[in-house]
Automatic annotation (TrEMBL):
A Pfam match: MS_channel_2nd
Residues in coiled coil: 37-64
Protein name: Small-conductance mechanosensitive channel
Entry GO CC: plasma membrane
Amino acid sequence: MLAISAAGLPGRLAIAQEPPQPQAQTEAPAPLADAGLDQAVKDIEKAKAKLASLQEAVKQSADNDDALVSLSAQVDELGRHILTTSVNLRPRFDQIKSRLTELGDPPKEGQPPEAQIVTEERNALTAERAQINAVTGDAESLSLATNKLMNEVVETRRRLFAATLLRRTEVSVSVLDDAAKAFVEEVGEFRQALSSWLSFVWKFKRFAMFAAIFMSLATGLIMLSGGYRMFGRYLTRDDGVENPTYISRLSIAFWSTLIRTFALAAVLVTSYIFLNGFNVLRPDIAPVVAALFGAIGLIYFVGRFSNAVFAPREPQWRLVRLSNRGAQSIGACLLAMAIVNALDYLFGSVGEAMGSPLVLTVVRSLIAALIIGLILIAASFGRPMLAHDGDPDAPGRHWPRGMAIILRLLGLGLIVTALTGYVGLARFVATQFIITGAIIVTTYIGLLSGKAISKQESFGDTFIGRFLKSRFNMGPVAIDQVGLGVGLAIYAVALMTGIPLILLLWGFHIQDLQLIAYRLFTEVRLGGISISLLGIFTGILLFAGGYFLTRWVQRWLDSNVMARSHVDLGVRNSVKTGIGYLGVALAAIIGVSAAGIDLSNLALVASALSVGIGFGLQNIVSNFVSGLILLVERPFKVGDHVVSGTAEGIVTRISVRATEIETFRKQSIIVPNSELINAAVGNWTHRNKVGRSEIPISVSYDTDPQKVMDILLELVNEAPFVLRNPEPHVEFLRFGAYSLDFELRFMLADMGEGMNVRNNLRIAILKRFKEEGIEIPLPQSDVIFHRDHVPAPMLEPSSTAADEESVDDTGMTDGGAVRQLRSKAADGNRKG
């Protein structure tokens, strides 16, 4: 036993002080508040006594696992209490340290003396600090002692478990003979005890027994009916479905096994609780009834599991590739082994209640291990695998060689282990092979169900997905998100059901699981860091509550105060933004504090950051803060079409330092966030992807304008992605130099489709104009040539009459003989 001396620690830590000398203009110091320190000393003394008693109890209970489980819980509680006592002294210690820093060191020799009240206060604080250090040291020593005792309890339980499994008993003919005699005596004693109990119950506890049975059956029916209402489609198979989906097979196998087993377990557990609570059960009959209920539950669970996985009579619902005969034989083998284990457990409880000798328990376990081993060996010679042609009615194939060898070795190992005297080990292995295997496979089926349901575009095909679509008009994206949540919930149900059951089967107690859960949610240590999952969850809830409260305050203040006061829109937006920042910051501080994170660490980070800014990190910090602003305000998001001073394209990534924009030429441009904050940025898809597009059209002066407008409206109304509200319209822009200019304007549901829509519309317009004879004119210009007068004899013989038209020597036209030449140029590209 670890002895921790408390010498030097008085029962009440009162600090003796000399009465202060009266001084002018000076007040007496306030008495120290030592109530917390005094209580801590008392708690430490109680903890020492408690630790000493627990150490002695652990020594005396070295061969009792149940007592050790209870003691481990008490040791853990004592350790937490000691830690709390030490932590509660920390604030007072910090206060003393801060006050001593303010008072400073005492004056040295040759310096002016300080006031008497200051000296007395320093001495008192120094003495109290020394006492706190002493108490803290005792708490640390006690904490080490409790950890050592906890490790000792764990090691003792491990050795006890190993010794129980590896205990060897001699198996001989005399042992079997003694067991037979003891069995006969046990049967007689149990028959007499059971008949006397039934007579007593029928005479005096008849009403109580029927009431307990009725209440337990009502509980089971409520659970079963609730399960059918929520998961009715996943509890029964539809014989009319010839080829059910993989999700349907997995879901029915998992939920039918889980819900029906839980319903029966509720009936059995509540029956025992009610019978025991109504004093129907005697002390010698109660463990037998509990064992009977446990055996019934075990057999039912294995039967439901075999039917869910192997589906002997419904091959289309089978989860494994087995023939019909193979599925029936494997299911029968599993059920037979479960019955053998259940009967062994039941007879063992009867033997304990009747006080039977140990030899009878050993022989019963020996027989159970031999039977299970023979069943495994017999099953290894079967032909359960599905035939190559896939016909479930055809004779099956043999096991894969490796699987057959494993079954034979396991069965032979059980038989040899039991016959050599290690009956406890053989019984443990046989039980784990059946029950743990069934639980593991059921849990795995649940995980597969969750994975199948959470797969993209899978949940919408289920009954619940179709119901959500029709009832709440949810889109595919929302249905997929719900499916992901449902899949994660199924993961949680499968793991939270399977893992505790497996731990209980492998030697853990309920108290162990409670302690593990408590530590998991309250204290997870990673090196020197302690994390509380419950605290983190509480912090997240508080932050979410503060965030939604902030948003509600913003809306209420904007709509009920500032709107009624006719405040300027810019002021309203500034006030809303400021309240949003303030509320989110407060919610974050509250959430972080509730999560158990020390805010002083954040202060250190902030101070270090400020030092870094002074050394030239302004740009980095500017980009960092700008990135936070972009992530919070979301002026643009991933997938938006933006136009900045340096780039135009689609936003592909937003980080706290820079934003990545992909141009339409597939070039990635990294833009620092500060540039996006300090410069103007155009966002084509800020609120939504709706936008306006235009197509300019020019026709000749000979065309009817109303006809052109009607044709354009007809064509645009037939185009996809064009919104009808606001409806498209055509603007008659101007009388051009050589054409009538129009512009077709329309709204698109998705600006990303603008190029395709405009191209298709241009093709349709050109084709329709050709059919209607509408001309799209080209640019025109008049060119006039002036030529001097030339004598007739000098004219070439080949000159035409038009060439004989001349002008006078002054260059003026003669008789209006001017030839006008018309030239046409190709129309330049115009931006649509």
